[in-house]
Amino acid sequence: MLLKKKESSCCSGAGCCGETATQATAPATSVSEGVSASIRSLVIDFLYLDLEVCTRCQGTDDTLDQAVADVSSILQSAGIEVVINKVNVNTEELAILYQFASSPTIRIDGHDIAVDVKENQCDSCGDLCGDTVDCRIWTWHGVDYTEPPKAMIIDAILKTVYGGCASPSAEALKPYEVPENLHKFYDAMKQKNAPASTCCT
After folding, report:
1. How many domains does the chain have?
2. Which of 15, 70, 93, 145 has the smallest CB count inside 10 Å?
3. Chain segment 25-34, per-residue pLDDT in tens
4. Confidence band of 92 (pLDDT split at 50, 70, 90)
5. What is the value of pTM for the model shown?
């Protein structure tokens, strides 16, 4: 399997919103060995608010990497090139660009692996922005988790590869608007990062 990773973030310095990419093979064998000459891409988008403080985003990031590693031999045999885009959606402009519904989000070939958006209070993001913020919870076999189980991600990958794309949910078909919860987070971060006003005579 040919594995490509891209990380994107937005900052105020030079190279804002630039991307860095790393490319590796896993395992370290040629894609052409035992694989059809026809290679297709499987695009996985990981969208998140924060990887420094938010434990849910951190855990989801780690679990995603583990899930891809676990199915690497299957995907390699099927001639699948995996492209992972990791995007720090830290502004409303980026939220609109990526139609960001909840943090964190995993999409495979454009489809959210979670059927419904469910959230509850995230203490770490609340500590980060200084306000009450909700983050995504993941439902797998009737149980809610603050981080997606590895089996859930693997199931979504294999269904996309062998079962075709799932039909978009009714929510996904609606015109996008930045959710109020994300508005609150972005506004709180702006206030937190705003330069302190000074008064002098």
Report:
1. 1
2. 15
3. 333 334 444 4
4. very high
5. 0.78
